Amino acid sequence: MGYGMRVAIVGATGQLGHSLCSAFADWDVTPLGSADCDVADYETVMSTMYACGPDLIVNAGAMTAVDACESEIDRAFAVNAIGPRNLALAANALGADLVHVSSDYVFEGTAGRPYDEWDEPWPLGVYGRSKLGGEREVQTIRPASYVVRTAVLISTQAPNFALSILRAADGDSKLQVVSDQVGSPTYAPHAAAAIRRLAVSGRYGLYHVAGTGSCSRADLARELLGAAGHDASRVEDVTTELMVAAYPAPRPANSALDCRAWRLHGWEPLPTWQEGVRDLLADLARQQPVTPEQPLPNADTARAEPPRVRVSEDLDVTDGSDAPDAPPPRAASPAGREQEPR
User: Fold this and answer.
1) Distance (Å, rounded) from C-alpha 102 to C-alpha 316?
2) Which of 127, 80, 148, 67 is nearest to 313 (CA)?
3) Tens digits of per-residue pLDDT, 80-119?
4) Where are the domains of the chain?
5) Which residue in 41, 185, 252, 272 has its CB near the most CB atoms, within 10 A?
6) How many CB atoms lie within 10 A of CB 308?
């Protein structure tokens, strides 16, 4: 596969979908948001795919509202399991290749080490169960396919955890962030470039595609603030238990991913999660005009005890249809780095 081929990108309105459209820019791209193609409806999927006639289907769409999945179980399985089933059937009918994007939440998080592709999934909640269901549908119906698990996606496209942290950085609040959930933060353009490489390889199978390394949500927040020139000490560690009332769905304590299959094929590992943070900040700075520095607080303000804001947002957003669009935050220049393309 290569230049001039046709690709249908499902979930194109989300942060990974947006990056995939850029990664496949030299192809004939058909971007499909949830309003363009209801993946849970077989007839709609078939008619849409026959109309665009893709050589490759990339499914980056999902119901990613983890807590809502616990109460909207049928909808979660319709989108996250039946949707991939329908896309796999369409790929069979068209003779198209298929990439399906899944999640680190298929694991229970008790291994005490990063999970590789040969670890047994054991999801804790409805979201993880439905995503595992989608994997199995694709692997059963379209064995010649690529199933890609990624994790903790961040990008310049709202909503995502990184933008929530950077937006909160403009205030003076203490930011309370969970410190007992560990994952592998992944910059969406890095994941999209890896998926592009995988999709033209012909090496079908299951792959973990995530930023190299792992960290807690609180450590990610501190890295974001520090790299953007803000005070990283504003981040306060809190436990998941403190967040249960607002975010009731169970979440794995450690869902860090080991990209073993990717590595064993001889491909270069994805950039580290810290590099992903810096690339995110550089891209934000390029997108927005330079603004004056915020004035320092006066003495009275500095003496006052700042309020506390709890920051907890689902980190595995693919299709952004679950949440309204929000403007990106103003990003300070990453400390000690020029704002030039890599």
Assistant:
1) 9
2) 67
3) 999 999 999 999 999 999 999 999 999 999 999 999 999 9
4) 6-157+184-208
5) 185
6) 12
CB crowding 138-148: b at 16 or more within 10 Å, else e: bbebbeebbbb
Instruction: Looking at the structure, give the CATH architecture of the domain made up of residues 6-157+184-208.
Output: 3-Layer(aba) Sandwich (3.40)
d(CA 106, CA 62): 14
pLDDT in tens, the chain (342 residues): 555 699 999 999 999 999 999 999 999 999 999 899 999 999 999 999 999 999 999 999 999 999 999 999 999 999 999 999 999 999 999 999 999 999 999 999 999 999 999 999 999 999 999 999 999 999 999 999 999 999 999 999 888 999 999 998 877 788 999 999 999 999 999 999 999 999 999 999 999 999 999 999 999 999 999 999 999 999 999 998 887 767 889 999 999 999 999 999 999 999 999 999 999 999 999 987 544 443 333 333 333 343 444 444 443 333 334 443 334 443 333 333 322 222
Catalytic residue among 105, 115, 127, 187: 127
pLDDT tens per residue, range 55-64: 999 999 999 9
Residue length, the chain?
A: 342
Among 118, 123, 106, 16, which residue's Cα sits nearest to residue 61? 16
Q: State whether residue 216 is helix, strand or coil.
A: strand
Structure-token pair, residue 34: 């949830």
Q: Is 204 a catalytic residue?
A: no
Partners of 148 in the beta sheet? 101, 207
Strands 205-208 and 186-187, sheet pairing: unpaired
Helices 15-23 and 188-199, packing angle to 10 deg: 50
Q: What is the CA radius of gyration of the chain?
A: 20
What is the C-alpha to C-alpha distance for residues 216 and 219, in angstroms, rounded to an integer? 5
Angle at 186 between CA 316 and CA 317, to 5 degrees: 20
